Every structure is written in structure tokens, then in C-alpha cells.
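As a warm-up, study this chain.
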Amino acid sequence: MYILGINAYHGDASAAILHDGHLVAAVEEERFNRVKHSAGFPANAVRYCLQAAGIRPDQLDHIAIARDPKAHLLRKTFYAMRLPRMTRDRLVALGRFAEIKGDLAQACDVDRKQIRAQVHRVEHHKAHLASSFFVSGWDQAALLSVDGMGDFASTMWGFGEDRQIGSDGIIAFPHSLGLYYTAITQYLGFPHYGDEYKVMGLAAYGQPEYRDEFRKIVHLNETSGFHLGLEYFVHHTEGTEMSWKAGVPVVGNLYSRWLEQRLGPARRPQADIEKRHEDLAASLQARLEEAMFWLLNRLYKKTKAKTLCLAGGVAFNCVANGKIFAETPFEKIYIPPAPGDAGLSIGAAYFLYHQVLKQPRAFVMDHAYWGPEFGDHEIHRELQARHGEMSRSGGVLRKLDTEADMCQWVARRVAEGQIIGLFQGRMEFGPRALGNRSMIADPRRAEMKELLNRRIKHREPFRPFAPSILEEATSRYFEQSHPSPFMLMAYNVQKDKIGKIPAPTHHDGSGRLQTVNQGTNPRYWGIIKAFEQITGVPVLLNTSFNENEPIVCRPEEAIDCFLRTPMDAVIIGNYLVEKTSAQAPQTVVSGCVSR
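Now compare it with the structure written out below.
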């Protein structure tokens, strides 16, 4: 049985495909069209998934879409009468969903009549919950999904057992922790879709001096969980404009003039960041954490479960995630690599397979490597095509005979202060580079953060980089030992280790870590292990392989990024490309060990 899951006509459009309950492939549309958070129909992602499964469109049995127009119909109807602009935008989107088979046929260049698969609609938050629980490997768990808005709900909680997800409650429009965070993100001068993570990084530099005011913005209560102080927002009165057309998604202004009257004038984009802005960001983050822990502790009282599955866009808040162990009774947490809307494609497919079709569970998502990969032949062909460009200034041929030689070579260069690109295997699903499309550097060098931000990433200086650590060494360097394979937890660095890894340690002494398991990524684990043997430190600084663009997907994108930035070398598949000097852009390519 083949099931195609799709997140379409929304930000982070994506596709995923299951074969008899096992995930075959999952990928975001942005990886192909190079548009960050790309919306619209994920035509390229769908084509890749079918190719990875080795099937034609007419061989699909089911198509699962993470949108249910019948969900919360009364509330939708109520706001439809009050907010005509919002209604117009949503009717356009729903109209597109009605033509899902036509868009699929067009993407695959087949007649619509050939698409025989049955189309199923899955409620937004149930798909979020499914994207976490059904791939966690756990028989039972408490479930929580928190995001901006989907099917007119922002939050859903419940309990998962075997093949069933039970929803025990929701928080509906207009109350939303996701919209709360987005509104203050806009107010702080970060207007683009997906900018919330920047403000999370900025919060570490401030103090929650505005905590009392923020408690008026988000109210906690026993009956509903939380509600917003709606006078601070406009989305419920003006119907904020949102665009989910193909290309970059756009969300209109969410905060009100009242918020500016209470907190002061909004920061203009690109204006200097003042101490006030840092404190506002800290207050925003502090109130989010209070609300999340309030919800989670209520959920624990209801379920008594020690395991938690978390999803939704707010689950990207790794600072809050890392404090769950200290602030709640939960002992184990599973968050999928794409807890936001990209993960809806996986969630919709698994909700259909288990909850609707009653099929048994047999799959665990213990890694994020579900995207495109490229063989030595494809990589060599691209390198040969760029040979003249890369060897214009001369270079040195290198031959690395074994996998161990390759790991040692990379580790030595990183220890010497070089920045190395890793392009290997299947691309990561979700927004984090986890060793297959990463740049790595020496975490011991405090200046490395500024160098990367200024010379390569061209981004704000307050944004941190991630420490990748051998999973078995986690408790030696951090105050928690629970694995964080998808870089979705921030733990405090042990105080005696901050001086050993200053580059990826954030201003508040924490690190958004990735724990690296030898079984799921043996090459990346081997590089970190070799670095530990050289330096005594089982950690590398890890950042995504890109420069103000989506993470590189294809070999040509990796080469382009390598050539235009001050990276020193790149391992691309089983080939090595090295720059010989600051003046000599690139050297020739030498064969590396075949895995």
C-alpha cells in the first residue's frame, strides 16, 4: 500500500510517501525551488517521493491532505461573517484543495483520470500529533500540538495509545501562542515568515523586565488553558492578510496600536537593537515558557503519562523544550525533525494509515535523512563539469584511502581552524542540518561564531550555532542526558565545559545541541570521534550548508556555496575539494573512500 502525504497551499509545502507503513521519503518543496518556506503545491517534492518509491502516480492507493474544511465548522462560520478578507483567503485555499488530483496530475504530467487514489482530509492538529506519536516508537504517550493556526485551532492535546490518537481538548481561533510569538516577532522588527527563531536567540541577551505586561497579553486559566488579551492584536478584528500562493508565504501585521502604546514604538527592520528590545524578547520567551509548562502540567495531571510527544510550530522553541524536564514530570520527550507544517505531510499519511485504516505500527523515525541523495557518478559528473573553474589557481590532488582516513583528515583540518562543508547521503527533512548538509568548525575557538556569522552566513551576530556532540558524551558536557537527535532541545552547558566549547555556547550558557548516534550517521559520528581523539573534545560546531538560501540540496548548489564563501574544503559524497589558499579559490578533486 502506497500513501502520499501532502502539505500544500501553505508555508513549508512538503510531500512524504509511505509503503506499507514505512516512510520511504519526505522532503520540502523549498529544497528544489530554492524559495525559503515555499508555499503552493509541492510539485517537485511529490515527483521526488514517487521517484524514491519507484512508482507511478496511478500506483498510489491513498492521498492524505492535512486540511479538513469540516473541522470546527461553527467557529469558521462565525468568523466568516465577521472577517470577509480572511474568509476570501481561506475560500481560495479550500478551492485549491478541491483540485488536488488535478494539481498532482499536472505535476506528474499525466491525465487526471489516471490518479485513482482516494483522497482523505486530516484535521491540521491531528496530523501534527500523528507526525510525532505514530513515529515515536512508544505504545503510549501524552500528546500536545501548539502552533499558529490550522483548521481554526491553535492547540490540541490528548493521549495516544497503539493505533489511536484521542483528542481531549483544543484552543481555537483567535487565541494562539504561535500568533502571540509571531506578533511580537513582527513588533521587534523581524517581519518575515519564520523569523521567530531569531527572536528566541535574541531573548538570551535580555531580562524579562516586561513580564507583568506580558502576563496581560497571555492569560492562563484552568478552564481553557490560556487566552490572549485580544486588545494587543488585530487578527480577530481585521482578519490579517495571509498569502499561501506559490513562493514565499506572507503574514500581515498581527499586533495592535494598543501594544505599541503599552510597550513603546515598534522597532523598524534593520534598525539598531537596543537593550529594550532584548528585554522584550526575553519577556516574550518567558511568558511562552510559562504558558507551555502550564499546558504540559495540566496534560500530565490528565494522562499520568511519563512520555510526551510534542508537535506544532511552537515545538521549534528549543529553549522551552530543554526546560520541560525541570518544569514538568515528563521523563521522555519525542519531537519529530519537522514538528512544524512541513511535518504535516508525514502526519497526515500516518494518521490515515493507523487511525483510519487500522494498520499496525512498525516504523520508528530515529533519523531525519529522508530527502534526495546523489551517487558518486552524479557527483563526479558535476565536479568534472566544474573542474576548470575549481582548478583555475592550481591545487593538490588528494587520495583518501579509507573512511577512517577521511574522518581523520576532516577532524585535523577543523582542529587547525578550517571550516569544512559536509555533503553526504540523503538530505535532512526539517529545517536543521544534521551532518549531511552541514558546515562544521572548531567549537573551542570563541572567535568562530563571529567569523561564521560575518564572513559566511551574513546574519545577525546574536544568533547562535549548534554543538553536535557524540550521543554517549552528552551528560559530560550538558546538564541533561536525554538525546536531542534533531537539534530541538537547548540544554545548559556544564559550567566547567563552557570554556572548552565557547563558539556554540549561547550568551545564556546554553547550547541547542544535536546528539549524534553512531548507528544513524556513522560518518558524522566518526568525524566527531576523530576530533575528540585529537583535541579531547567530543563536540563540533555545526551550522547549515547555505548562505541566505535554503540548505543546499544538489551537488551544484554545494559547489556554488563553497566557491562564493570562505569555506576551506568540502567533502561531497566520496570526493574531496580543497582550497589551497585565500587567493586560490579551489583545487581539483580527488576520489575518497567508497562507503
